[in-house]
């Protein structure tokens, strides 16, 4: 297979933009990514578009990319609409990587976009209801307490994990404090005000033990990535960032090994490296406990040592492995279909040395992990992408 290079990235700020539509978000992200790569829309071989909730929130089904990108100059290109819950644009990236690596296309553009904010909040929260098997019986209390089915699911997982490893709510608060500090240095982040452990713990309880600050929020945004072959990249101005591995795993009811573990192992094997080689990572922290759980899932620490790792400061900006220097889903924001692409944008900036105050010094190898949906007690899908210079 051919080596695949990320040569251009761009994104919009994330936030609640009631007056903006998906088209305007996509146009801004695409324009930035193409300009960053030094190419035009004419240079794009195919488009892979990730969006999770457009049908529920704004009624746009079936032709989401063709509608969202009609004014970008990309009309007429092969377009593929990818819906895979929170992992939609990570899945789109995987497909684009396969297309370029196989030689089917020399270039491809990945776009992840989501418009979740709505005047009626019930519409926004309703978008999450379809990301589970609707015929599966949910555990007692899920969806009835917080009003958010996923926060109830995350809370139940957090309680089980706390009992197993001895972590406490203050460790979750430490994740948020780290996240907000990173986001304060990220002009694209939704929540840029720093906070304290006490403020996190004293914010409104959503679903025990998750307080409001421990939960990712509703948001809007778009991100875009220009991929190309290594030979094509030699003609472009940017330092190449290589996709070393891309793995995707779906839930397997009855398998005790969670999807994130299996996806991580497959990516490490593909890249020929181990977790000790990762210097900067963007993880799917839809709730604060998820970041800690993923420390263990991805081998950043031994099982039971995640609380020790967050307390050590080794996952801070400039630490041994800087985790979520963008602010992550908790603070950069979590517009579902844009999240995976935004992770890759941040890691590309990190590997180029363009992340400003939040730069992890000397970053050469990076990892993104993104989950989506819920099935049989596990995420329905997980993707792990490894990048390097």
UniProtKB/TrEMBL annotation:
Domain Thiolase N-terminal per the UniProt entry, residue ranges: 4-230
InterPro entries the UniProt entry points to: Thiolase, Thiolase-like, Thiolase_C_2, Thiolase_CS, Thiolase_N
Ranges that cross the membrane: none
Matches recorded under PROSITE patterns: THIOLASE_2 (PS00737)
Residues annotated as domain Thiolase C-terminal: 259-381
Pfam families per UniProt: Thiolase_C_1, Thiolase_N
SUPFAM superfamilies found in the cross-reference section: Thiolase-like
Entry EC no(s): 2.3.1.176
Protein keywords: Lipid transport, Lipid-binding, Transferase, Transport
One GO MF term: lipid binding
GO BP annotation list: lipid transport
UniProt xrefs under PANTHER family: ACETYL-COA C-ACETYLTRANSFERASE, NON-SPECIFIC LIPID-TRANSFER PROTEIN-LIKE 2
Protein name in UniProt: propanoyl-CoA C-acyltransferase
């Amino acid at each position: 297979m051919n080596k695949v290079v990320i040569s251009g990235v761009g994104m919009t700020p994330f936030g609640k933009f009631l007056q903006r539509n998906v088209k305007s978000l996509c146009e801004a992200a695409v324009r930035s990514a193409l300009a960053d790569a030094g190419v035009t829309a004419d240079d794009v071989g195919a488009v892979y578009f990730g969006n999770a909730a457009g049908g529920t929130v704004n009624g746009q089904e079936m032709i989401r990319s063709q509608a969202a990108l009609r004014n970008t100059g990309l009309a007429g290109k092969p377009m593929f609409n990818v819906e895979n819950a929170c992992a939609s644009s990570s899945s789109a990236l995987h497909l684009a990587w396969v297309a370029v690596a196989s030689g089917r296309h020399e270039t491809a553009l990945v776009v992840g976009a989501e418009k979740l904010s709505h005047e009626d909040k019930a519409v926004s929260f309703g978008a999450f209801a379809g990301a589970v098997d609707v015929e599966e019986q949910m555990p007692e209390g899920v969806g009835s307490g917080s009003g958010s089915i996923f926060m109830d699911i995350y809370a139940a997982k957090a309680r089980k994990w706390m009992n197993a490893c001895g972590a406490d709510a203050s460790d979750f608060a430490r994740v948020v404090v780290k996240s907000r500090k990173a986001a304060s240095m990220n002009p694209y982040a939704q929540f840029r005000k720093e906070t304290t452990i006490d403020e996190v713990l004293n914010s409104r309880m959503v679903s025990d033990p998750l307080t409001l600050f421990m939960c990712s929020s509703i948001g809007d945004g778009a991100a875009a990535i220009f991929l190309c072959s290594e030979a094509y990249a030699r003609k472009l101005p940017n330092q190449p960032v290589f996709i070393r591995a891309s793995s995707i795993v779906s839930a397997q009811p009855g398998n005790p090994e969670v999807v994130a573990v299996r996806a991580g192992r497959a990516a490490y094997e593909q890249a020929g490296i181990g977790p000790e080689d990762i210097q900067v990572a963007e993880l799917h922290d839809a709730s604060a406990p998820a970041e800690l759980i993923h420390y263990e899932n991805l081998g950043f620490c031994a099982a039971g040592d995640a609380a020790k790792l967050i307390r050590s400061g080794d996952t801070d900006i400039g630490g041994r492995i800087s985790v979520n220097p963008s602010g992550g889903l908790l603070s950069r924001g979590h517009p579902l279909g844009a999240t995976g692409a935004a992770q890759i944008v941040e890691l590309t900036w990190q590997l180029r040395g363009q992340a400003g105050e939040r730069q992890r010094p000397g970053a050469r190898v990076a990892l993104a992990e993104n989950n989506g949906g819920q099935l049989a007690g596990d995420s329905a899908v997980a993707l792990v992408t490894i990048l390097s210079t």
